[in-house]
Structure formats: structure tokens, C-alpha cells
Amino acid sequence: RSRTVGHLACVHPAQVFRLTGNESGAPGPVKGFAPLAWFGLPRRRHCARTLAAMGRAFYWLVAALVIGGVAGAPIRALLPAYMEGQVKAAPSFTSLLLAIQLGVGGIFALAGGSLSDRLSRRTIVLLGVPSAIPGALLFATHDPVYLVPMAVVWGVLTGFQASGGQSFLMSAVEPSKTGTATAVFFLTTTMSGAIGAWVGGVAADAFGYDVVAAGGAVLALIGVATAARFLPDLGSDKSRSGSASHASGGMDYLTV
Fold this sequence. Notes:
Layout: H1 2-8, H2 17-20, H3 35-39, H4 44-52, H5 55-87, H6 91-118, H7 121-128, H8 132-137, H9 144-172, H10 178-207, H11 209-230, H12 249-254
Helix pairs in contact: 5-6, 5-9, 5-10, 5-11, 6-7, 6-9, 7-9, 10-11
């Protein structure tokens, strides 16, 4: 059991002895328990092999979505302040815009997943990465006639980004590496959002909302260019239904 736990957690089995009371792993009283003993020490070679085995397709996906995440994070973080301070809109209207974006995003995440299965995962990723552009356009007008449609388009693209990124991830890595890849994906995209929100707030104080919006749009275009240049076309489940090597197809493209 200790070997299984050690393998899954990138931990050498010998590091679990403090929980069992002896180095052999045999049951025994808990002696010398320390918080680090629960997690153990990283088994560096195993972790390095695991990360390397995920392939370049996965890492280029992460790079494109990190760029898109940094671009889009200030939009959601600063939109309430912008609507209150610049547009003079009621909180209910700001909440409506965010609700529209979230609701439409959920619907089109489902649509994007279906299109990924039928058409191309790469195409859906390319449609989702520039989601910061319609979000940035929200800072370019004060007119509700334009704000609501921009929130709808923003939601459509964020839905494609979510489903396209996840479906591409599952095709780009081996099934045995999916858990680690998902963790890396979540960590990097979450950190990019945190960094983007903070930098956007500092930039808005120093230069104004227009500069933040323009910078987000430019970063989103860089993310699209990165994805278009480096992401391989992994096809779809439909196009690859006759292939026996479904899980390793993404890495084969990148090792040429």
C-alpha cells in the first residue's frame, strides 16, 4: 500500500515510515510524527519523468491559456469598479452583465465540448483563447445597448475556452498522466488569473481602464498567435475513431 501511495504522490515509499512507525512499512505505533512525514519528500526523478512525458502539445496549450488568462483576468476583476465609477451604472446592471457572461459561458461550454468531439479540439481552443477581447470592449463604451451584446460574446468565447482547453488536454496526454496534467493545468491557469487581476488593478490606477483593456486585447492576440503556431491539430473523436493510438496522438505530432 505504501508503494502505491508513494507512486501516486511522487513520494518515495521509504518516506512514509514515520506514519507506520518503522522503515519497513509494517504496521506499528506512530512514532515521531511530523507534518512533512504525511506528504513525504518529492521523488524527483519520477516527477521529472512524469512532467516530461506529458509532451509539448500540453505545454503549448498551457502557455496559450496562461497568456489568455492574464489578458482576461483584469476584465472580471475591474468591471464592477468601472461600471460604478465610469458608467455610473447601478450594481444590479453590473450583476446582470456578469450573470449573462456566466450563463452564456456555461451553455457554450457544452456546445464547445460537442464541437470538439465532432470537429477539431484545436479549433475550439483557438476560438476560446481571445475571450479577453470582447471583455476588453466592455471598457470602450458606456452604452448598455453595446454592453449587453459584448457580455454575450464574452460568455460564448469563455465557454469555448473552458471546454476546448479541457478536451485538448485529455487528448494531448497519456491516460496515465491525466491527473498530473489536470493539476498542472489548474495551477497555472489559476495563477495566471491571480497575477493578471493584480497587475490589471495596478495598471488601472496608474494608466486608466483604456490602457488595461488595450493591453488585454493585445495579450489575447498573442495567445491566439501562440496557439495557432504551436498547437498541433489533434483532430476529434470522430476523425480519430479508426485509430488505435488515440491517447498518444498529440505527443507524436510534437516529437517529429
